[in-house]
Amino acid sequence: MEDCLFCKIVKGEIPSQIVYEDDEILAFNDISPQAPVHILVVPKKHIISLAHITKEDETLIGKIYGVINKLSDEKGFKQDGYRVITNCGENAGQTVKHLHFHVLAGKKLGEKIV
Ligand code: AMP
Ligand code: ZN
Prior knowledge:
Elements: H1 5-11, E1 18-21, E2 25-29, E3 37-43, H2 58-74, E4 82-85, E5 101-105
Bound molecules: adenosine monophosphate and zinc ion.
């Protein structure tokens, strides 16, 4: 999608610090980290949010969690724990309208709201 920031990152038109890539998924460091580890994991396919996935995307979502599990192992934050967040829509404050999963780790994380 032309005017989408994360599509531009996927295409390499905007630089990012990539930590994982395959045919369907890209993971890169958040530009404004909220924890020592703050990775964004995105599908390469433009999907606006979790509210916009279809049945056929469900395998891809599963793969994204597989990538997160692999990264937690490789980057050494699996044992201490981490948090995965996806902001969906207005009330959650989603700013980039391309589905993404925040992976936060490396410190005791702040307030738990659920
Ligand atoms: P959200 O508020 O859930 O939509 O999260 C969007 C995230 O994208 C924020 O954590 C931003 O810091 C991050 N972000 C914005 N621009 C960039 C960029 N060019 N590279 C990496 N992360 C970015
Ligand atoms: Zn996009």
